[in-house]
């Protein structure tokens, strides 16, 4: 397969970027999207040109590193997968493919398609964990958790922190990501003790990082590769309001 790639090139966050045209030929339909970029980079190296910088790690849909906008869609045209799980057979021979980085003020561009998502790390560092003693492993396993709560925790724990929700939101809101983390931990008995402090601290950190507010357009839910429900945002807002009111009493 042959493709005409239109790739965003940008030296760093301080310099302006632009779309640059590249032609790739003899691409196997079974190649992943990242392997296709690898093959282009190999050719650029052979010609002595600078490679296209993009983020990746596991290439198994687990780590959340590989976020790229492909033809205006976060992680490309196939729903519920990450960019590393996307294969070239989902495109037509001769297609023009536009490849751009996540665009959000809170995710400054490092180079080309790679952005700095450390704002997410700082939100997790703020209070996205359980610090009370939960006992040894056998005790944790013997703590009864209702099936409905365990499933809610598992569903929200599926968030891989990729940032597609922020990038696809017109307000660059991080509320889907933060709500997934809050609901995951606050649903469990081990997380309940610190639940009020957690939701206040994480929401405050999210606001400090410069993410926008949620206006319920739900683009985040559509583009999320892990099908995190936007209903978690309503749950987080409710927990935040309750926590603030109880703190003031
Ligand atoms: S909520 Fe979905 S889109 Fe947002 S960071 Fe988590 S996995 Fe990615
Ligand atoms: S490289 Fe890890 S999710 Fe894509």
Summarize the structure.
With 249 residues, this protein is α+β, with helices and mostly antiparallel strands. It has helices at residues 33-46, 118-127, 137-142, 147-157, 164-168, 175-186, 189-192, 195-208, 219-223, 231-248; strands at 3-9, 18-24, 69-70, 73-74, 96-100, 109-111, 114-115.
How would you characterize the overall build of this protein?
The protein is built from 10 helices and 7 strands. The chain is an alpha+beta fold. It folds into 2 domains: 3-111, Beta-grasp domain (Ubiquitin-like (UB roll), Roll); 118-248, Fumarate Reductase Iron-sulfur Protein, Chain B, domain 2, CATH 1.10.1060.10. Strand 6 and strand 7 (114-115) form a beta hairpin. Helix 2 runs antiparallel to helix 8 (195-208) and helix 6 (175-186) packs across helix 10 (231-248).
């Amino acid at each position: 397969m042959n493709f005409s790639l239109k790739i965003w090139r940008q030296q760093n966050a301080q310099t302006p970027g632009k779309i640059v045209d590249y032609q790739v030929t003899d691409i196997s339909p079974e190649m992943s999207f990242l392997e296709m970029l690898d093959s282009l980079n190999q050719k650029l190296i052979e010609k002595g040109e600078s490679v296209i910088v993009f983020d990746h790690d596991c290439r198994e849909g687990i780590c959340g590193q590989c976020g790229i906008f492909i033809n205006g869609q976060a992680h490309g045209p196939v729903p519920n997968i990450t960019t590393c799980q996307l294969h070239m057979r989902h495109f037509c021979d001769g297609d023009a493919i536009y490849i751009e980085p996540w665009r959000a003020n809170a995710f400054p561009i490092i180079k080309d398609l790679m952005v700095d998502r450390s704002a997410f790390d700082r939100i997790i560092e703020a209070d996205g964990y359980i610090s009370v003693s939960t006992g040894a492993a056998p005790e944790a396993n013997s703590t009864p958790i209702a099936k409905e709560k365990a499933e809610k925790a598992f569903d929200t724990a599926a968030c891989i922190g990729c940032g597609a929700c922020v990038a696809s939101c017109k307000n660059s809101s991080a509320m889907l990501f933060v709500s997934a983390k809050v609901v995951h931990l606050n649903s469990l008995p081990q997380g309940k003790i610190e639940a009020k402090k957690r939701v206040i601290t994480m929401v405050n950190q999210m606001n400090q990082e410069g993410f926008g507010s949620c206006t319920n357009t739900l683009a985040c839910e559509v583009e999320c590769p892990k099908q995190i429900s936007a209903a978690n945002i309503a749950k987080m807002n409710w927990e935040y309001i309750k926590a603030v009111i109880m703190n003031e009493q």
